[in-house]
Amino acid sequence: MRLLGDAAVAMWWNVAEENLGEFHDWHSREHLPERLGIPGFNRGSRWQQPGGGDFFVLYELETYDTLISDGYRARLNAPTPWSTKMMPLHLQMVRSQCRIIASHGGGLATFISTIRLSPATGRAGQLEEYVRASVEHLSHRPGVTGAHLLRTETPASEPTTEQKIRGGDAVADWIVLVAGHDDEALREITEGSLGGDALRHNGAARSQAGEPYRIVHAMVPQDV
Fold first, then answer.
1. Is the dihedral of CA 95, 215, 179, 8 positive or negative?
2. Under 8 Å between Cβ of 13 and 91
3. Pick from 81, 93, 134, 161: most CB atoms within 10 A?
4. Rounded CA gap, 203 and 119, in Å?
C-alpha cells in the first residue's frame, strides 16, 4: 500500500461497544465523504482491531499544505450536527499530522500494524536510518504489501472546533505502518525487527505497537 501523497493524518481512538453501530454508520456515510470532498485529500481508510472498538484512521494527503488549507480548516471549524454528537465518543484520541518520510509497496491490504515511537536524545539519525532501511526491506517480505515511515509535524494553528469538542488530542511522534494480507507476518515484524527491543537498540526511547487492524472502509475522491 504505497501512500498517496506527501502528508497524512494518522489517528487512533476507542469507541464504546454501545456506540459502535452509529459510529460506523456516521463515519462511512458522512465523515469519510466529507473529508474526501476536501481538495488535497487522496484517500481515507478506517481500520478496526477484531473484537473491539479500537480504531486506526488514516487520511493520505497530496501535500503538507493541505493540513493548513482553507478547505480543511473550514470543515474542522464547522462540524455537522451528527459530527458534533459523535466527536465526544472518540475516546483516548491520538491525532498526528504528518509528513511521509518513506513509503514502499502498493495497493490496499487487509491488515495494518501501527507502531508509535520516539527517538532517544541524540539518536534520531540512527533511528531514522534503521527504520528507513527496515520499511524498504519489509515491503518485499511474504505476506506484506507495504511499509511506511511518517513523522509528526503539527502546523502552528489555533485548536479547531472539533478538537475543542473532543477535549484535546494526544499526539504521536514517529509512526511506522506495515500493511499486508497475512496478519501473522505483521505480528512477527512488530515482535522482531520493529519490536521494542530492536527499536531501542537502534535509537528509540520508546515505542508502542498492538494487534493488527483490519480494513473496514476506504474511500477516494472519486467515490464521493
1. negative
2. yes
3. 134
4. 6
Q: Which three cell numbers stand for residue 150?
A: 511518517
> pLDDT at residue 144 above 70?
yes
Kindly tell me the sign of the dihedral angle through the C-alpha atoms of 70, 76, 78, 83.
Answer: positive
Mean pLDDT to the nearest integer, 111-133 = 98
111 phi and psi, to 5 degrees?
-125, 155
Contact call for residues 190 and 115 (beta carbons, < 8 A): yes
CA distances from 88 to 10, 45, 82, 84, 169 (A): 18, 21, 11, 8, 11
Please state the rounded mean pLDDT for residues 184-207: 97
Domains of the chain, earliest start first: 7-219 (3.30.70.100)
Question: What tens digit of pLDDT does each residue of 145-182 get?
Answer: 999 999 999 988 778 898 888 887 899 999 999 999 99
Kindly calculate the radius of gyration of the chain based on its CA atoms and give it in whole angstroms.
17
Beta carbons of 150 and 109 less than 8 angstroms apart: no
**What integer pLDDT is reported at residue 1 of this predicted model?**
55
